[in-house]
Amino acid sequence: EIVLxxxxxxxxxxxxxxxxxxxxxxxxxxxxxxxxxxxxxxxPRLLIYDAFNRATGIxxxxxxxxxxxxxxxxxxxxxxxxxxxxxxxQRSNWPPWTFGQGTKVEIK
Amino acid sequence: xxxxxxxGGGVVQPGRSLRxxxxxxxxxxxxxxxxxxxxxxxxxxxxxxxxxxxxxKEYYTDxxxxxxTVSRDSSKSTLYLQMNSLRDDDTAVYYCARDSAVGTFDLxxxxxLVTVSS
Lengths: 108, 118
Fold this sequence. Notes:
heterodimer, A: mainly beta, 7-stranded mixed sheet, about 0% helix, globular, B: about 120 residues, mainly beta
């Protein structure tokens, strides 16, 4: 089973700042990594798939990069609605499909 | 409107059964595979089960193998999760998710809460 480790656990930032979230895989997942956003009481929403492709309707301030074992989700300038929990997820080696433990982006 | 709506959650005693449903609308149900993903209170996301678009293959996380069964009815555009021998640690919000590329979850339902408690 591929283990995904996200860092940091919590990121405290102000609106307008840049957010950089990390996801590290226990073995290579090639580019088969996605990022999801989840707000309290809501279902997750797909942001990025296959490492760097934005899902439909996702603003350009969200970008993904990386391959192999190290991946990054960058939010170029935080909007108030971006404060949420973010999860990475791999689809390289399954089952199981696995998620990271999440990074919470909170208002500083 | 493209959406999926779960139902069937509730409070159930340990050892009992529950069936969750996920009704899809606004897209061609039969051309997609689907997954169930759960989230225990205050915890992260855990993949539970998957079924292929034609229903030919099913996959389960180890902790539910032999207890849970995923199925689909294309005539009703509905996905199911039959959960038997429920345990306390099955308590979670259960989400259905559409598969757009063998493990990319591009559309989610709103979730249904299952609480296993005596």
